[in-house]
Design goal:
The complex is a heterodimer. Chain A is mainly alpha-helical. Chain A has ten helices and no strands. In chain A, helix 2 packs antiparallel against helix 3, helix 2 packs across helix 4 and helix 8 packs across helix 10. In chain B, a hairpin with a 6-residue loop joins strand 1 and strand 2.
Chain lengths: 180, 251
Protein backbone atom coordinates (compact mmCIF):
# COMPACT_ATOMS: atom_id res chain seq x y z
CA UNK A 1 0.00 0.00 0.00
CA UNK A 2 1.44 3.39 -0.98
CA UNK A 3 1.80 6.45 1.22
CA UNK A 4 -1.05 8.07 -0.73
CA UNK A 5 -3.28 5.02 -0.10
CA UNK A 6 -2.55 5.18 3.63
CA UNK A 7 -3.25 8.91 3.60
CA UNK A 8 -6.64 8.31 1.97
CA UNK A 9 -7.45 5.65 4.55
CA UNK A 10 -6.58 8.03 7.40
CA UNK A 11 -8.83 10.68 5.84
CA UNK A 12 -11.68 8.14 5.61
CA UNK A 13 -11.07 7.07 9.23
CA UNK A 14 -11.15 10.73 10.26
CA UNK A 15 -14.61 10.86 8.65
CA UNK A 16 -15.70 7.85 10.73
CA UNK A 17 -15.49 5.03 8.17
CA UNK A 18 -15.07 1.81 10.08
CA UNK A 19 -14.10 -0.27 7.06
CA UNK A 20 -11.14 2.05 6.47
CA UNK A 21 -9.80 1.32 9.96
CA UNK A 22 -9.94 -2.41 9.23
CA UNK A 23 -8.03 -1.86 5.98
CA UNK A 24 -5.44 0.30 7.71
CA UNK A 25 -5.06 -2.32 10.44
CA UNK A 26 -4.56 -5.09 7.90
CA UNK A 27 -1.94 -3.05 6.08
CA UNK A 28 0.04 -1.75 9.05
CA UNK A 29 -0.51 -3.81 12.22
CA UNK A 30 2.40 -6.25 11.66
CA UNK A 31 4.81 -3.39 11.21
CA UNK A 32 3.61 -1.56 14.33
CA UNK A 33 3.50 -4.80 16.34
CA UNK A 34 7.15 -5.43 15.38
CA UNK A 35 8.13 -1.94 16.60
CA UNK A 36 6.18 -2.32 19.88
CA UNK A 37 7.42 -5.85 20.56
CA UNK A 38 11.00 -4.74 20.03
CA UNK A 39 10.55 -2.18 22.82
CA UNK A 40 8.46 -4.22 25.26
CA UNK A 41 9.47 -7.85 24.53
CA UNK A 42 6.47 -9.10 26.50
CA UNK A 43 3.79 -10.24 24.04
CA UNK A 44 0.75 -9.62 26.20
CA UNK A 45 1.83 -6.07 26.90
CA UNK A 46 2.71 -5.49 23.28
CA UNK A 47 -0.75 -6.69 22.21
CA UNK A 48 -2.39 -4.31 24.69
CA UNK A 49 -0.34 -1.42 23.35
CA UNK A 50 -1.14 -2.32 19.74
CA UNK A 51 -4.83 -2.25 20.62
CA UNK A 52 -4.41 1.19 22.24
CA UNK A 53 -2.57 2.47 19.18
CA UNK A 54 -5.43 1.68 16.77
CA UNK A 55 -7.95 3.13 19.20
CA UNK A 56 -5.83 6.29 19.25
CA UNK A 57 -5.58 6.25 15.43
CA UNK A 58 -9.38 6.06 15.18
CA UNK A 59 -9.80 8.97 17.55
CA UNK A 60 -7.03 11.17 16.16
CA UNK A 61 -7.10 10.40 12.45
CA UNK A 62 -8.82 13.72 11.73
CA UNK A 63 -5.80 15.50 13.25
CA UNK A 64 -3.32 13.79 10.93
CA UNK A 65 -1.41 16.41 8.95
CA UNK A 66 0.19 15.04 5.80
CA UNK A 67 2.42 18.11 5.50
CA UNK A 68 4.18 17.17 8.75
CA UNK A 69 4.70 13.42 8.48
CA UNK A 70 3.92 10.44 6.32
CA UNK A 71 0.99 8.31 7.53
CA UNK A 72 3.26 5.45 8.58
CA UNK A 73 5.64 7.75 10.47
CA UNK A 74 2.68 9.28 12.25
CA UNK A 75 1.50 5.82 13.29
CA UNK A 76 4.99 4.62 14.23
CA UNK A 77 5.34 7.71 16.44
CA UNK A 78 2.08 6.89 18.23
CA UNK A 79 3.19 3.25 18.64
CA UNK A 80 6.64 4.16 19.97
CA UNK A 81 5.23 6.76 22.37
CA UNK A 82 2.71 4.28 23.75
CA UNK A 83 5.24 1.48 24.06
CA UNK A 84 7.78 3.78 25.73
CA UNK A 85 5.11 5.08 28.15
CA UNK A 86 4.39 1.48 29.10
CA UNK A 87 8.09 0.69 29.45
CA UNK A 88 8.68 3.73 31.69
CA UNK A 89 5.67 2.79 33.84
CA UNK A 90 7.03 -0.71 34.26
CA UNK A 91 10.31 0.61 35.66
CA UNK A 92 13.22 -1.71 35.12
CA UNK A 93 13.94 -4.18 32.42
CA UNK A 94 17.02 -6.00 31.24
CA UNK A 95 18.81 -4.17 28.47
CA UNK A 96 21.58 -4.98 26.11
CA UNK A 97 24.79 -3.03 26.44
CA UNK A 98 26.01 -0.58 23.84
CA UNK A 99 28.77 -3.00 22.90
CA UNK A 100 26.11 -5.58 22.20
CA UNK A 101 23.97 -3.05 20.37
CA UNK A 102 26.98 -2.13 18.26
CA UNK A 103 28.17 -5.72 17.72
CA UNK A 104 24.96 -7.63 17.33
CA UNK A 105 23.90 -7.08 13.75
CA UNK A 106 20.39 -6.07 14.63
CA UNK A 107 19.62 -4.18 12.60
CA UNK A 108 22.74 -5.02 10.62
CA UNK A 109 23.36 -2.98 7.48
CA UNK A 110 22.30 -5.91 5.35
CA UNK A 111 19.18 -6.53 7.46
CA UNK A 112 18.31 -2.85 7.27
CA UNK A 113 18.87 -2.83 3.56
CA UNK A 114 16.75 -5.96 3.19
CA UNK A 115 13.97 -4.82 5.46
CA UNK A 116 13.88 -1.20 4.39
CA UNK A 117 10.74 -0.95 2.34
CA UNK A 118 11.18 2.57 1.08
CA UNK A 119 13.96 4.66 -0.43
CA UNK A 120 13.70 6.95 2.60
CA UNK A 121 14.34 4.04 4.92
CA UNK A 122 17.34 2.85 2.91
CA UNK A 123 18.87 6.32 2.89
CA UNK A 124 18.32 6.78 6.64
CA UNK A 125 19.72 3.32 7.39
CA UNK A 126 22.78 4.00 5.24
CA UNK A 127 23.33 7.38 6.91
CA UNK A 128 23.13 5.74 10.36
CA UNK A 129 25.72 3.17 9.30
CA UNK A 130 28.17 5.92 8.36
CA UNK A 131 28.11 7.51 11.83
CA UNK A 132 30.67 6.92 14.58
CA UNK A 133 29.62 3.44 15.81
CA UNK A 134 29.23 4.69 19.40
CA UNK A 135 26.92 7.49 18.27
CA UNK A 136 24.89 5.12 16.12
CA UNK A 137 24.68 2.60 19.00
CA UNK A 138 23.13 5.17 21.37
CA UNK A 139 20.65 6.26 18.69
CA UNK A 140 19.70 2.63 18.00
CA UNK A 141 19.40 1.77 21.70
CA UNK A 142 17.07 4.72 22.29
CA UNK A 143 15.05 4.47 19.08
CA UNK A 144 14.61 0.73 18.70
CA UNK A 145 14.68 -0.41 22.33
CA UNK A 146 13.31 2.65 24.12
CA UNK A 147 16.25 2.82 26.53
CA UNK A 148 16.69 6.10 28.44
CA UNK A 149 19.84 8.21 28.51
CA UNK A 150 20.07 7.53 32.24
CA UNK A 151 19.97 3.77 31.73
CA UNK A 152 22.57 3.88 28.96
CA UNK A 153 24.77 6.19 31.04
CA UNK A 154 24.64 3.86 34.03
CA UNK A 155 25.24 0.77 31.96
CA UNK A 156 28.14 2.18 30.00
CA UNK A 157 29.61 4.49 32.67
CA UNK A 158 29.40 7.37 30.21
CA UNK A 159 27.99 10.72 31.47
CA UNK A 160 24.47 11.59 30.25
CA UNK A 161 25.78 14.85 28.78
CA UNK A 162 28.28 12.95 26.65
CA UNK A 163 25.59 10.58 25.37
CA UNK A 164 23.32 13.49 24.46
CA UNK A 165 26.18 15.15 22.65
CA UNK A 166 26.86 11.96 20.67
CA UNK A 167 23.22 11.70 19.68
CA UNK A 168 23.01 15.35 18.66
CA UNK A 169 26.15 15.23 16.59
CA UNK A 170 25.04 11.94 15.05
CA UNK A 171 21.55 13.09 14.14
CA UNK A 172 22.67 16.49 12.88
CA UNK A 173 25.13 14.74 10.62
CA UNK A 174 22.42 12.38 9.42
CA UNK A 175 20.12 15.31 8.76
CA UNK A 176 22.73 17.14 6.69
CA UNK A 177 23.56 13.98 4.71
CA UNK A 178 19.90 13.33 3.99
CA UNK A 179 19.37 16.93 2.94
CA UNK A 180 22.35 16.77 0.55
CA UNK B 1 24.29 18.09 34.14
CA UNK B 2 27.51 17.85 32.17
CA UNK B 3 27.93 20.93 29.97
CA UNK B 4 27.78 20.24 26.27
CA UNK B 5 31.03 20.35 24.38
CA UNK B 6 31.56 23.52 22.34
CA UNK B 7 31.12 21.79 18.98
CA UNK B 8 27.50 21.17 19.86
CA UNK B 9 25.71 24.34 18.82
CA UNK B 10 22.08 23.32 19.34
CA UNK B 11 19.93 25.50 21.55
CA UNK B 12 18.63 23.75 24.68
CA UNK B 13 15.12 23.81 23.17
CA UNK B 14 16.19 22.22 19.92
CA UNK B 15 18.10 19.59 21.87
CA UNK B 16 15.12 18.84 24.08
CA UNK B 17 12.94 18.40 20.98
CA UNK B 18 15.45 15.94 19.55
CA UNK B 19 15.76 13.99 22.80
CA UNK B 20 11.99 13.77 23.12
CA UNK B 21 11.49 12.67 19.51
CA UNK B 22 14.12 9.98 19.97
CA UNK B 23 12.32 8.76 23.10
CA UNK B 24 15.33 8.71 25.41
CA UNK B 25 13.92 10.93 28.17
CA UNK B 26 12.49 9.85 31.48
CA UNK B 27 11.29 11.46 34.72
CA UNK B 28 11.29 15.26 35.08
CA UNK B 29 12.91 15.85 31.68
CA UNK B 30 10.16 13.81 29.97
CA UNK B 31 7.41 15.67 31.84
CA UNK B 32 8.97 19.03 31.00
CA UNK B 33 9.09 18.09 27.31
CA UNK B 34 5.45 16.90 27.35
CA UNK B 35 4.35 20.17 28.92
CA UNK B 36 6.24 22.17 26.29
CA UNK B 37 4.72 20.04 23.56
CA UNK B 38 1.22 21.03 24.59
CA UNK B 39 1.95 24.72 25.11
CA UNK B 40 4.58 25.66 22.57
CA UNK B 41 3.71 25.21 18.87
CA UNK B 42 7.26 26.00 17.75
CA UNK B 43 8.62 23.29 20.02
CA UNK B 44 5.93 20.86 18.83
CA UNK B 45 6.88 21.59 15.22
CA UNK B 46 10.53 20.90 16.00
CA UNK B 47 9.59 17.58 17.64
CA UNK B 48 7.43 16.66 14.63
CA UNK B 49 10.31 17.40 12.26
CA UNK B 50 12.65 15.05 14.15
CA UNK B 51 9.94 12.40 14.37
CA UNK B 52 9.48 12.60 10.61
CA UNK B 53 13.22 12.20 10.08
CA UNK B 54 13.60 9.32 12.53
CA UNK B 55 10.43 7.54 11.44
CA UNK B 56 12.00 5.70 8.48
CA UNK B 57 14.37 3.94 10.93
CA UNK B 58 11.38 1.88 12.01
CA UNK B 59 11.31 0.33 8.57
CA UNK B 60 14.27 -1.83 9.58
CA UNK B 61 12.27 -3.56 12.32
CA UNK B 62 10.98 -6.93 11.16
CA UNK B 63 7.16 -7.01 11.02
CA UNK B 64 5.43 -9.44 13.39
CA UNK B 65 1.85 -10.49 12.70
CA UNK B 66 -0.27 -9.82 15.80
CA UNK B 67 -2.83 -12.41 16.96
CA UNK B 68 -6.35 -11.88 15.63
CA UNK B 69 -7.59 -11.21 19.17
CA UNK B 70 -6.09 -7.71 18.96
CA UNK B 71 -8.30 -6.59 16.09
CA UNK B 72 -11.30 -8.18 17.80
CA UNK B 73 -10.49 -6.15 20.91
CA UNK B 74 -10.15 -2.92 18.90
CA UNK B 75 -13.53 -3.52 17.29
CA UNK B 76 -15.14 -4.36 20.61
CA UNK B 77 -13.70 -1.26 22.22
CA UNK B 78 -14.70 1.13 19.44
CA UNK B 79 -17.81 -0.32 17.86
CA UNK B 80 -19.44 -2.45 20.52
CA UNK B 81 -23.20 -2.63 20.43
CA UNK B 82 -25.16 -0.35 22.72
CA UNK B 83 -24.92 -1.82 26.25
CA UNK B 84 -27.87 -4.06 27.03
CA UNK B 85 -30.05 -3.01 29.91
CA UNK B 86 -29.65 -4.82 33.20
CA UNK B 87 -32.78 -5.81 35.15
CA UNK B 88 -31.36 -4.35 38.36
CA UNK B 89 -30.86 -0.60 38.76
CA UNK B 90 -27.53 0.17 37.17
CA UNK B 91 -24.67 -0.05 39.64
CA UNK B 92 -21.21 1.11 38.56
CA UNK B 93 -19.16 -1.23 36.41
CA UNK B 94 -16.92 -2.34 39.28
CA UNK B 95 -19.87 -3.08 41.55
CA UNK B 96 -21.50 -5.07 38.75
CA UNK B 97 -18.40 -7.14 38.22
CA UNK B 98 -18.01 -7.77 41.92
CA UNK B 99 -21.65 -8.82 42.19
CA UNK B 100 -21.08 -11.33 39.42
CA UNK B 101 -18.04 -12.69 41.11
CA UNK B 102 -19.74 -12.88 44.50
CA UNK B 103 -22.69 -14.69 42.98
CA UNK B 104 -20.58 -17.68 42.06
CA UNK B 105 -21.57 -20.84 43.86
CA UNK B 106 -18.24 -21.86 45.31
CA UNK B 107 -17.50 -22.05 49.02
CA UNK B 108 -14.29 -21.25 50.78
CA UNK B 109 -13.53 -24.94 51.03
CA UNK B 110 -13.15 -25.39 47.29
CA UNK B 111 -9.67 -26.67 46.58
CA UNK B 112 -7.50 -26.35 43.55
CA UNK B 113 -8.08 -29.91 42.41
CA UNK B 114 -11.83 -29.43 42.36
CA UNK B 115 -11.61 -26.26 40.34
CA UNK B 116 -9.10 -27.88 38.04
CA UNK B 117 -11.62 -30.60 37.33
CA UNK B 118 -13.90 -27.84 36.06
CA UNK B 119 -11.49 -27.41 33.24
CA UNK B 120 -12.77 -30.73 31.94
CA UNK B 121 -16.39 -30.84 33.02
CA UNK B 122 -17.63 -27.26 32.96
CA UNK B 123 -20.28 -27.13 30.28
CA UNK B 124 -19.89 -24.57 27.58
CA UNK B 125 -16.29 -23.89 28.42
CA UNK B 126 -13.70 -23.74 25.70
CA UNK B 127 -10.78 -25.86 26.82
CA UNK B 128 -7.33 -24.32 26.57
CA UNK B 129 -5.51 -25.16 23.39
CA UNK B 130 -3.43 -27.75 25.24
CA UNK B 131 -4.25 -29.55 28.49
CA UNK B 132 -1.95 -28.83 31.43
CA UNK B 133 1.22 -30.81 30.92
CA UNK B 134 2.40 -33.18 33.64
CA UNK B 135 4.90 -31.60 36.00
CA UNK B 136 8.11 -32.45 34.26
CA UNK B 137 10.20 -29.75 35.86
CA UNK B 138 9.35 -28.97 39.45
CA UNK B 139 6.06 -29.44 41.25
CA UNK B 140 2.81 -28.20 39.76
CA UNK B 141 1.71 -25.22 41.85
CA UNK B 142 -1.85 -24.00 41.99
CA UNK B 143 -3.79 -21.19 43.64
CA UNK B 144 -7.54 -21.09 44.20
CA UNK B 145 -8.21 -17.42 43.78
CA UNK B 146 -11.11 -16.23 45.89
CA UNK B 147 -12.96 -12.93 46.10
CA UNK B 148 -11.60 -10.53 48.68
CA UNK B 149 -15.00 -10.01 50.34
CA UNK B 150 -16.54 -12.13 53.11
CA UNK B 151 -17.95 -14.70 50.67
CA UNK B 152 -14.45 -15.85 49.66
CA UNK B 153 -15.92 -17.41 46.55
CA UNK B 154 -13.39 -19.13 44.35
CA UNK B 155 -13.57 -17.40 40.99
CA UNK B 156 -10.57 -18.71 39.16
CA UNK B 157 -7.95 -21.39 39.52
CA UNK B 158 -4.41 -20.58 38.54
CA UNK B 159 -2.03 -23.47 37.95
CA UNK B 160 1.64 -22.68 37.41
CA UNK B 161 3.17 -25.04 34.92
CA UNK B 162 6.92 -24.45 35.04
CA UNK B 163 7.51 -26.85 32.17
CA UNK B 164 5.50 -24.63 29.82
CA UNK B 165 6.32 -21.34 31.50
CA UNK B 166 2.61 -20.59 31.64
CA UNK B 167 -0.09 -20.03 34.21
CA UNK B 168 -3.16 -22.06 33.30
CA UNK B 169 -6.14 -19.90 34.22
CA UNK B 170 -9.46 -21.62 34.69
CA UNK B 171 -12.32 -19.23 35.47
CA UNK B 172 -15.10 -20.82 37.51
CA UNK B 173 -17.70 -18.92 35.50
CA UNK B 174 -17.82 -16.34 32.78
CA UNK B 175 -17.25 -12.96 34.40
CA UNK B 176 -17.49 -10.12 31.90
CA UNK B 177 -15.47 -7.19 33.16
CA UNK B 178 -17.57 -4.43 31.62
CA UNK B 179 -14.84 -2.43 30.00
CA UNK B 180 -12.36 -2.95 32.81
CA UNK B 181 -9.35 -5.13 32.13
CA UNK B 182 -8.41 -7.80 34.68
CA UNK B 183 -4.68 -7.83 35.37
CA UNK B 184 -2.80 -10.65 37.08
CA UNK B 185 -0.13 -9.88 39.69
CA UNK B 186 2.36 -11.93 41.66
CA UNK B 187 3.57 -10.86 45.09
CA UNK B 188 6.48 -12.58 46.78
CA UNK B 189 7.48 -11.75 50.36
CA UNK B 190 7.44 -8.00 50.89
CA UNK B 191 8.15 -7.17 47.24
CA UNK B 192 5.88 -4.85 45.29
CA UNK B 193 3.29 -6.58 43.09
CA UNK B 194 4.72 -7.57 39.74
CA UNK B 195 2.40 -7.57 36.75
CA UNK B 196 2.07 -10.82 34.82
CA UNK B 197 -0.01 -9.01 32.21
CA UNK B 198 -3.67 -8.56 31.49
CA UNK B 199 -5.88 -11.61 31.34
CA UNK B 200 -9.25 -12.68 30.05
CA UNK B 201 -11.81 -13.94 32.54
CA UNK B 202 -14.07 -15.38 29.91
CA UNK B 203 -12.31 -18.61 28.99
CA UNK B 204 -9.71 -21.04 30.28
CA UNK B 205 -6.34 -20.08 28.90
CA UNK B 206 -2.61 -20.67 29.13
CA UNK B 207 -1.07 -17.32 30.06
CA UNK B 208 2.62 -17.31 29.17
CA UNK B 209 4.86 -15.63 31.76
CA UNK B 210 7.93 -13.74 30.56
CA UNK B 211 11.14 -15.64 31.44
CA UNK B 212 12.46 -12.98 33.82
CA UNK B 213 9.34 -13.24 36.00
CA UNK B 214 9.12 -17.03 36.18
CA UNK B 215 11.35 -17.25 39.27
CA UNK B 216 8.67 -15.33 41.19
CA UNK B 217 6.14 -18.12 40.82
CA UNK B 218 7.12 -20.17 43.85
CA UNK B 219 5.28 -22.00 46.62
CA UNK B 220 3.76 -19.43 48.98
CA UNK B 221 3.71 -16.58 46.44
CA UNK B 222 0.42 -14.65 46.26
CA UNK B 223 -1.46 -14.17 43.02
CA UNK B 224 -3.93 -11.31 42.74
CA UNK B 225 -6.28 -9.93 40.10
CA UNK B 226 -7.11 -6.24 39.93
CA UNK B 227 -9.45 -4.43 37.54
CA UNK B 228 -7.62 -1.85 35.47
CA UNK B 229 -8.38 0.59 32.66
CA UNK B 230 -8.26 -0.74 29.10
CA UNK B 231 -4.75 -1.83 28.33
CA UNK B 232 -3.84 -2.57 31.94
CA UNK B 233 -2.47 -0.53 34.82
CA UNK B 234 -0.95 2.71 33.56
CA UNK B 235 1.48 2.87 36.50
CA UNK B 236 2.92 -0.63 36.71
CA UNK B 237 1.19 -1.15 40.07
CA UNK B 238 -2.43 -2.12 40.71
CA UNK B 239 -4.64 0.97 40.44
CA UNK B 240 -8.11 -0.59 40.48
CA UNK B 241 -9.88 -2.80 43.03
CA UNK B 242 -8.29 -6.18 43.83
CA UNK B 243 -11.09 -8.64 43.15
CA UNK B 244 -9.43 -11.98 43.87
CA UNK B 245 -6.34 -13.35 45.59
CA UNK B 246 -4.87 -16.77 46.25
CA UNK B 247 -1.65 -18.42 47.43
CA UNK B 248 0.34 -20.85 45.31
CA UNK B 249 0.52 -24.29 46.94
CA UNK B 250 1.91 -27.59 45.68
CA UNK B 251 -0.70 -29.87 44.16
Amino acid sequence: MTTADLGRLLAAIGAGERAALKQLYTATSAKLFGVILRILHERNEAEDVLQEVYITVWRKAAEFDASRASPITWMVTIARNRAIDRLRARGTRPTTTLDQAADVPEPAPSAEAMLAQSDDARRVAAALDRLDPRHAAVIRSAFYDGVTYEAIAERESVPVGTLKSWVRRGLIRMRSELAA
Amino acid sequence: MTPLPPDDDMTPDAALALDYALGALDGPALRAAELRLRRDPAFAADVARWQAELGPLADAVAPVAPPSAVWAAVERELFREAPRTDPAPAPGPVARTLALWRGLAFGASAVAAVALALLVVRPGATPPTRPPAPASSGPLLAASMATTDAAKAVVITATWDAARGAVILTPAAKAPSRGLTPELWVITGTDKPQSLGTIDLADPQAHVVSPQLRAKLTKGATLAISLEPAGGSPTGQPTGPVVATGTLTAL
